[in-house]
Amino acid sequence: MKFCSHCGNPVIQRIPEGDSRVRFVCDHCQTIHYQNPNIVAGCLPVWGTKVLLCRRAIEPRLGFWTLPAGFMENGETVEQAARRETDEEACATVNNLSLYMMIDVPHISQVHVFYRAELANLQFAAGIESLEVQLFEEADIPWSELAFPTVSRTLECYYADRITQLYPVRSEALPPSRGIKKT
Ligand code: ZN
Q1: What are the residue ranges spanned by the domains of the chain?
Q2: Architecture of the 1-35 domain
Q3: How far is the CA of 37 from the centre of ligand 1 (A)?
Q4: CA 33–ligand 1 middle distance (angstroms)
Q5: What is the pLDDT of residues 33-59, one digit of tens each?
């Protein structure tokens, strides 16, 4: 950030009085511009034994497969964001959402949240951010062509849990070594 979004004057980086972290501060209008993590919400849409994946039409990771997910918007709930992203990326309707994975990605200041969900029907299609959308059996999951480590991790857990049919809510942190690059 170079300029204050409130008054347009240049901002500087310093620790405000009473704070402990460096912030962007506008000394003209005294606004402190706090920056906080973003939430990425998505679904793991299931149809019988199959899982729905989308092949990305946009960067980052264009051409790689992902679960439908994206940045939460102001004014919506996490579950609404997960449904909206599934509709936007896969033109798919999902029911019975169950919170499943919360993965902290602190090195890029994101939290990824995935719900297990049932596809309502077989009406799905590539949305504008997808090249194609397809149902996969476990044996056909393109593990080496998955877009993000949080997607890989969510699918790994899902197939491990499917053996027992128990799906505990998981909360994990993604180590930087599994790398999602800052974009
Ligand atoms: Zn200002």
Answers
A1: 1-35, 38-175
A2: Single Sheet (2.20)
A3: 22
A4: 9
A5: 999 999 999 999 999 999 999 999 999
Q: Parallel, antiparallel, or unpaired: how do β-strands 69-71 and 65-66 relate?
A: unpaired
Q: How far is the CA of 111 from the centre of ligand 1 (A)?
A: 29
Domain 38-175 belongs in CATH node 3.90.79.10: yes
> pLDDT per residue over 58-116, tens digit each?
999 999 999 999 999 999 999 999 999 999 999 999 999 999 999 999 999 999 999 99
pTM recorded for the entire structure: 0.91
Q: Is the CB of residue 103 less than 8 Å from the CB of residue 85?
A: no
Q: How far is the CA of 136 from the centre of ligand 1 (A)?
A: 51
22 Cα: distance to centroid of ligand 1 (angstroms): 17
Amino acid identity, position 40: V
What is the DSSP secondary-structure string of 131-144?
Answer: EEEEEE-GGG--GG
